[in-house]
């Protein structure tokens, strides 16, 4: 008897090394009660490790939409790894209920596990920003049809807003003080359920028409420089960004000098051009169109491209001016020195003439 017990312990230990115990069903997600909103796609994955050949997994429940079985063999233990995925493409109230996955062998149930699926009805109210009619506050709210809610936390971009001074949370309502277009986006009311480690997320939208921020007045580049233009758009839902050059839509080819990249969640909002040429100069326009609001916002910027030797021409001009000025000074000084020499010679000759004339007068007096 002791030998059989030790053998059982060894088998159990080997099974635990490779994951779950043999014939023990695991269902993903692992939470026993799963909450879904209307229209959500649901996938339940049932898995089991079996040492018996010919076993299979079966789903039973309110409405079993479609299931896919797969079988693999563990190369080390030779165990069969069975998987059966149940998929509900669009969850509705008729799909609510208990779903059980059974591991069977010739109609004998070896093991089973269940999940309870519930439809959550949301009653929510969002906010739409209006530039012409600004308000002191914006209220977002969400309520769900579950009685055992423990508490609610509001989140945006994975950031808890409970400790942010700009927001006030009260009774499933989030108040945003002095709302601006920059506050637009999807906010999440995260409901924590009593007796469950899981939570339910209710999405509430703060919408705003698109607005493109101003560019700098002009962009001056030198030939062969790399150019970058960033189209900074605010608003939600995200608008579609299109670039134009001189009122013609920009043609972007794969592997070319011109590339478009995402920026702040907006596709094609970051324009890059490698080694700019004179033909790249012109007026660039970024236009953001929102199908949700059926409006557009756009801004333009002028791009100038100069010769890469452009900075050299002013220097050469200065050098030329200096050379000309030095030449003029040299010629002037040379002529002035020559004139001074001539005046000195003339003065010397005049002095010599006077001396000679004085000698003649004295000679004449002495003869008389």
From TrEMBL:
CDD domains xrefs: Ig (cd00096)
Signal peptide (UniProt feature, chain positions): 1-19
Transmembrane segments: 311-332
Compositional bias (Basic residues): 358-368
Region feature (Disordered): 341-368
Every Ig-like domain range: 29-118, 136-187, 210-302
Keyword match Transmembrane: yes
Source organism, top-level taxon: Eukaryota
Record keywords: Glycoprotein, Membrane, Signal, Transmembrane, Transmembrane helix
Name of this protein: Basigin-like isoform X3
């Amino acid at each position: 008897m002791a030998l059989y017990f030790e053998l059982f312990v060894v088998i159990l230990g080997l099974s635990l090394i490779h994951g779950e115990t043999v014939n023990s069903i695991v269902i993903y997600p692992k939470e026993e009660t799963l909450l879904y909103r209307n229209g959500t796609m649901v996938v339940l994955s049932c898995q089991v490790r079996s040492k018996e050949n010919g076993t299979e997994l079966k789903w039973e429940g309110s409405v079993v939409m479609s299931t896919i079985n797969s079988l693999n063999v563990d190369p080390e233990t030779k165990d069969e790894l069975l998987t059966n995925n149940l998929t509900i493409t669009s969850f509705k109230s008729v799909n609510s209920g208990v779903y059980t996955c059974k591991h069977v062998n010739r109609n004998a149930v070896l093991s089973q596990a269940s999940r309870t699926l519930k439809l959550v009805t949301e009653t929510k109210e969002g906010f739409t920003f209006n530039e012409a009619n600004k308000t002191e506050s914006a209220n977002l709210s969400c309520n769900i049809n579950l009685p055992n809610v423990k508490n609610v936390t509001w989140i945006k971009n994975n950031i808890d807003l409970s400790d942010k001074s700009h927001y006030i949370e009260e009774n499933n309502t989030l108040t945003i003080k002095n709302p601006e277009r920059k506050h637009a986006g999807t906010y999440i009311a995260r409901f924590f359920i009593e007796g469950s480690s899981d939570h339910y997320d209710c999405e509430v939208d703060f919408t705003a028409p698109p607005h493109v921020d101003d560019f700098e007045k002009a962009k001056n580049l030198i030939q062969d420089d790399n150019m970058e233009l960033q189209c900074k758009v605010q608003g939600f839902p995200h608008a579609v960004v299109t670039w134009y050059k001189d009122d013609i839509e920009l043609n972007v080819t794969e592997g070319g000098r011109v590339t478009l990249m995402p920026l702040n969640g907006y596709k094609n909002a970051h324009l890059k051009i490698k080694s700019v040429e004179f033909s790249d100069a012109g007026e660039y326009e970024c236009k953001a169109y929102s199908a949700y609001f059926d409006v557009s916002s756009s801004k333009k910027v002028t791009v100038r491209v100069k010769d890469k030797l452009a900075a050299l021409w002013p220097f050469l001009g200065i050098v030329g001016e200096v050379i000309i000025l030095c030449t003029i000074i040299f010629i002037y000084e040379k002529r002035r020195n020559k004139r001074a020499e001539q005046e000195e010679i003339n003065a010397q000759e005049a002095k010599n003439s006077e001396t000679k004339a004085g000698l003649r007068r004295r000679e004449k007096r002495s003869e008389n």
